[in-house]
Amino acid sequence: MIVEDNFYVGYRDVDTNLKIKNSAILNFFEDIAGIHAAKAGEGATKTGTTWLLIGYKVKIYKRPMHGEKVHVITWGTEIKGITAAREFEIRNIETDELLITGLSNWAHINLKEKKLERVSDELAAAYEQEKDKTNFNETRLKKLTEPTEFKYEKEQYIDWNWIDANDHMNNIFYMDLADIVLPDEISKNNEFNYFEIMYKKEIKYKDTVKCLYSEDDDCCTITIKSKDTDELHSIIKLYKKGIDKI
């Protein structure tokens, strides 16, 4: 099943250059994935199950600008056990030019019991996977590793407005954390055309997390850990190389 809808790039979605932010890209992805789940008959109020995001790989060929209408598309490529893979596209609504592609991995969870749950054959069939349609030629994201050295670190208190229905910080806000930690000149330019995220452990309301910044010739890395650095929450890698070299 290929699911698609049109989205408007508004002021909250763009940076000071009027280009779409990484967090807004993920917001569009999350919304279209939710539409797909609803079409398959799954949802917190229907089945008591949902999906937890494990990670993203996103390639940006051209950033949409403020005021543009874009066509957002998603489809599932694999459901296996408790996990699934899903891809995304964002296209220019008038020319059909491919602007952004994304690959994501998910884990299936029972909300009432708060534990991972195998996807039934019936539910897997309802998602109507498109196994041969891909922009990545892979389904499983590789594990990201922490850098060995960091340039600096920042602490961030997690307020209530970052918490979602799953009672932990919404996946979108990890990119906002990254923007807070990045050097100002890098954050304002918003020129990274390839990024990866690995979600490891949920962040909850009133947590204080430590965001550690590192940089090398290839990428900028934001490692988000607990305040005492004992627990890893997420790793975000923003790659400097051009999309044509990926």
Can you walk me through this structure?
By secondary structure, this protein is of the alpha+beta class. It folds into two domains: 3-126, Thiol Ester Dehydrase, Chain A (Roll), CATH 3.10.129.10; 152-245, Hotdog Thioesterase (Thiol Ester Dehydrase, Chain A, Roll). It is 16% helix and 37% strand. The chain contains four helices and eleven strands; from the N terminus they run βαβββββαβααββββ. It has helices spanning 22-39, 121-126, 173-181, 184-189; strands at residues 3-8, 49-60, 69-80, 83-92, 98-110, 115-116, 152-157, 194-199, 208-215, 219-226, 232-239. Strands 1, 2, 3, 4, 5, 6, 7, 8, 9, 10 and 11 form an eleven-stranded antiparallel beta sheet that branches. A hairpin with a 5-residue loop joins β10 (219-226) and β11. The longest helix is centred in the first third of the chain and has 18 residues, at 22-39. It is globular and about 50 Å long. The two termini are 28 Å apart. The model has no long low-confidence stretch (mean pLDDT 91).
